[in-house]
Amino acid sequence: MEDCLAKKMEITVSEAEKRTGRNAMNIQETYTAYLIETRAVESQSEGQCAPVDSLWRRYSEFELLRNYLSVTYPHIVVPPLPEKRADFVWHKLSADNMDPDFVERRRIGLENFLLRVASHPVLCQDKIFYAFLTQEGGWKEMVNETGFQLKADSRLKALNATFRVKNPDKRFTELKHYSDELQSVISHLLRVRARVADRLYGVYKVHGNYGRVFSEWSAIEKEMGDGLQSAGHHMDVYAASIDDILEEEEHYADQLKEYLFYAEALRAVCRKHELMQYDLEMAAQDLTSKKQQCEELATGTVRTFSLKGMTSKLFGQETPEQREAKIKVLEEQIQEGEEQLKSKNLEGRDFVKSAWADIERFKEQKNHDLKEALISYAVMQISMCKKGIQVWTNAKDCFSKM
Amino acid sequence: DTSLAEVNSFSPSVPISPSSMINQYKFEDGPELRDLFITVDDPESHITAIETFITYRVVTKTTRGEFDSSEYEVRRRYQDFLWLKSKLEEAHPTLIIPPLPEKFIMKGMVERFSDEFIETRRKALHKFLNRIADHPTLTFNEDFKIFLTAQAWELSSHKKQGPGLLSRMGQTVRAVASSVRRAVKNRPEMFTEMNNYMETFSQKINVLDKIAHRIYKEERDYFSEMKEYGPIHTLWSASEEDIADSLKGIASCIDRCCKATEKRMAGLSEHLLPVLHEYVLYSEILMGVLKRRDQIQGELDSKVDALANKKTEKDLFSEEIGKLEDKVERANNALKADWDRWKQNMQWDMRSSFTNVAENNLRYYEEVKLFLTKMLIFHYFSEEVHGFS
Predict the structure, then answer these.
(1) Per the CB 3.0–4.6 Å rule, which of A344, A345, B155, B276 could disulfide with B150?
(2) Where, by residue number, does the polypeptide cross the bilayer (chain A) (predicted)?
C-alpha cells in the first residue's frame, strides 16, 4: 500500500479573500479566492520547519479539478465539493454566497475536499491534482490538454440518458437504490433540521424579552427589585447562548451534506457501470446479428425477414461476386467485433473489480464518519443541556429571592 | 346528590381537590387556621330552548358556626359569579375584589365551549372563590355565604331582592368626573404613589403576559417540528446496517426531547400563564379601586367646597360632611390595608410562578441530558466494552 499524498504533505485552505476581476465575457465580477498552503511533512521530522508553498484558487477551479477526476476515474467514488450555493438555510443564516459565515464554512469544506482526495489511494497519485496544489500558472491549460472535456460531454449525456440493461448486475442495482435512498433521507433530514433550528432559535430569543421587562419592572419594586433585575440578566444570557449552539450545529449539518453529495458520486459510479453493461450488450447483440447475416448470405437462406431479402426477391438476387464481397466485409467486421467484445468484457470486469474495491473503502469511511458525526451531535446536545441547566439554576436562585 | 352532608364526615385538613390546586395559592393563615374550603369542578353542559350554558359544581366545607351545615354542594353558572363580584364591589368599593375570568375569549384560538376554554375558566373560578375565602373581610360577606350555600331557586329569588346597582349611582357622570379631578389634587401622597405604581405595573404585566404566551407558542412550534425530526432517523436506519443502531439511538433521544418539551409546555400553561393573566386582570381592578377611592374623596371635597361658599348653613352640612369624612377615612384605610395584602400576595405569586418556570426548565434539561448520556454510553461505548474494534 503506497503512502498517499496526505501523509507526505500538509495541505490547508487557510484563507479566503474577496476579489474582483473580469470574467471570460469581460464582465466585472466579484468572487472569492481561497489560499491553498502546502508543506512537505518529511523535513519536519528532522527538526526543521519546511517552507510553506501557497497559491490562490477560486471555486470554479476546484470544480474543474473535480470534473477532471470524475471523468478520468469513473470507477472511483470521487469526494464531493461543498455546495455551490447555500442550501437548507434557516432564517437567520444568509443564503448569500458572499456572507462571511458561508465563506468560512466553504473554506473548511474545500480543505476537507483536498484532504479527502489526498488521502485516496488512487486519486492522490494524479499529476493534475498535484499540479493543482503546487502549480499556480498554466494549470487550466494542463487540464484541458488531457482532453478530458470530450469524455466529460459524453459522460454527462450518458448519465442522464435512459436505457434498459437486460442483465443488470444485482450488486450495482442495489447500490444505486441505496444511493437514491441516502440522498432522499439526508435531504429530508437537513430540511427538517433547518426548521427545528429556526424554532429553537425562536424559543431562546423570546426569553430575551424577559430581560428588558424585568429590568423595567424592578424599578418600581422594593423587595422584588434585585431578584427581578438579576433574573433578567440570566434570561439575556440564555437568549444569547443559542447563537453559538446553532453555529456548532451548522458544522454537523455540513458533515451530513458531504454525504448527501457523496451519494451522487456513488450513483455516478453505478450509472457508469450500467452504461458499460449496456454498451457491452449492444456490442454483443450487434455481433450476433452480423454473424447471422453472414450465415444467411453464405447459405443463401433467409431465416429472418429483412428489407434486403425482400428487395432481392423483387429485383432479383445479387451476383455471386457481390455476395462474396459482402461476406468478406462482414467477416472482417465480425473479427473486429469479437476483439472489441473481448476487450469490452475485460474492461467491464476490471471496472467492476476496482469499482467494488473503492466502494468497500467508501462504505467503511462513510460508516466511520457518520457514526462520529452522530456522536458529536449527541455531545453537542448534552453541552446545550449543560448550558441550560446552569442558566436556569442561576435564574431559579434569583426568582426564589424575589 | 346535593343534599347536605353529615356533620361527622367533615375533616378540615384536606379539601377534595387535586393536589395541584392546593399549590396554586398560598394559605395566608396557614392550613391549620383555615376554616373554609371551596372547590370548583365538574363542568356540565345545560341545553334549554333559549340557550346553552355551563354550570360548575361548587363544594364548600367549613367549621364556621354561622354556617348551618359543614358541607355544601351547589351548582353555579358564570352569571352567578358575575353577580357575586358586583355585590362585593358594591359592598366594599375600595377593597380589591379578585378578578373573574373573562366572558368570552375572541382570540380565535379557543372557541366558547371547547374543553380547554372550560378547564381554564374552571380553574380561574376556583381561584376567584378561594381568594375571597382568604380575604379577611370579604370572607364574611353575606352574599358570599349565600352564593356558597343556596340552592338554585333560593339564589335567584335572593338576586331579585335589594336595589339594583344602577340605582346606587348618586351623582351624575359629569359630577363624578369633576369631583374626581378635584380629588386628585387633594389626593394623599400614598395614593398618588399607588396610581403611579399601578400604571407601570399594568404596562409591565401586560407585556409579560404577551411574552409568556409567545414563549408557549414557540415551544409548541418547536415541538411539532421535532415530532417529524426523530422518525427520519429511524427511516434512515432501515437502509443502513453498521450505523442503524446509532441512528435509532438519536431518534429515541429526539423523541424523549419531544416528551420533555410537552411537559415543559404543560408547566407553562398550568402555572405561569394563568397567574400572569390573573394579574393583568388585577391591574385593571386596582386602577378601578383607586378611581373609586378618588370618587369617594371627591364626594367629600365637592361638599366641602360647596360649604365654603355657603357660610350660613354650616351646621346643616357639618353632619353630612362628618359622615363623608368618615367614609373617606374608612375607604382609605380599607384600601391601604388591602393594598399591602395584595402586594404581598403578588410577590408570593410571582416568586412561586417564576421559580416554577425555572424548575420546569431545569427538569427538562436534566431529563434530556440524562437520556442522551445513557444513549451514548449504551450505543457507542458498549462496542468497546464488548471488544469490537
Answers:
(1) B155
(2) none
| Disruptive mutation site among A174, A379, A396 for chain B (greatest number of B CBs within 10 Å) | A396
**Rounded to an integer, what distance in angstroms lies between the CA atom of residue A139 and that of residue A68?**
12
List C-alpha distances in Å: A123 to A5, A70, A159, B242, B373: 9, 10, 22, 26, 40
Coil, helix or strand at residue A168: coil
Last residue of a domain, one of B122, B142, B157: B157
Most A-contacting residue of B222, B234, B252, B346 (CB-CB within 10 A), to test interface: B222
| CA dihedral (A249, A255, A257, A259) positive or negative | negative
Q: Which of B193, B196, B215 to mutate to test the interface with A (most CBs of A within 10 A)?
A: B215
pLDDT over 80 (residue B221): yes
Q: How far is A182 from chain B (nearest CA, A)?
A: 7
B325 and B365 co-located in one domain: yes
Query: How many angstroms separate the most distant Cα atoms in chain B?
Result: 111
Residues from chain B that touch A223, judged by Cβ atoms under 8 A, are: 347
- Expressed in angstroms, the distance from the first to the final Cα of chain B is 72
CB < 8 Å to B350, chain A: 224, 402
Is the domain of B152 the same as that of B214?
A: no
pLDDT digits (tens, 9 = 90+) for A72-108: 999 999 999 998 877 777 766 666 777 788 888 899 9
What percentage of chain A exceeds 70 in pLDDT?
Answer: 89
Q: Measured between CB atoms, which of A202, A206, A392 is closest to B358?
A: A392
Of the listed ranges A332-341, B73-82, B224-233, B360-369, the least confidently predicted one is A332-341
Cβ-nearest to B225 among A196, A227, A392: A196
pLDDT (tens digit per residue) in A281-339: 888 988 898 888 888 877 766 556 666 666 666 655 667 777 888 888 888 888 888 99
Record the cell numbers describing residue A313, joined without a space. Answer: 426477391
Whether residue A133 contacts residue A36, with contact meaning beta carbons closer than 8 Å, is answered with yes
Residue B28: inside a domain, yes or no? no
Assembly ipTM? 0.87
Note whether B355 contacts A382, CB cutoff 8 Å. no
| Minimum distance, in Å, between the CA of residue A399 and any CA atom of chain B | 5
Contact assignment for B365 to A389 by CB distance below 8 Å: yes
Domain ranges, residue B259: 183-388
The verdict on B300 touching A (C-beta cutoff 8 Å) is no
Concatenating the DSSP letter of every residue in B275-335 gives HHHHHHHHHHHHHHHHHHHHHHHHHHHHHHHHHHH-STTHHHHHHHHHHHHHHHHHHHHHH
B150/B46 same-domain check: yes
Separation between Cα atoms, residue A325 and residue A353, nearest integer Å: 42
Domain A168-299+320-401, CATH 1.20.1270.60 — does that match? yes
Task: Tally Cβ neighbours within 10 Å of residue B244.
Answer: 15
> For residue A219, which residues of chain B lie inside 8 Å, CB to CB?
200
CA distances (Å), origin A214, targets A225, A235, B209, B323: 9, 10, 12, 44
Owner of C-alpha cell 476483439: A339
Contact B225 A189 (CB under 8 A): no
Q: How far is B343 from chain A (nearest CA, A)?
A: 10
B247 and B152 housed in the same domain:
no
Q: Does pLDDT of B168 surpass 50? A: no
The phi, psi pair for B112, rounded to 5°, reads -55, -50
Residues 6+ apart with CB under 8 A from B100: B81, B82, B85, B124, B125, B128, B281
* Same domain as B287, residue B146: no
CA distance A300 to chain B (A): 58
Confidence check: pLDDT of B310 > 80? no
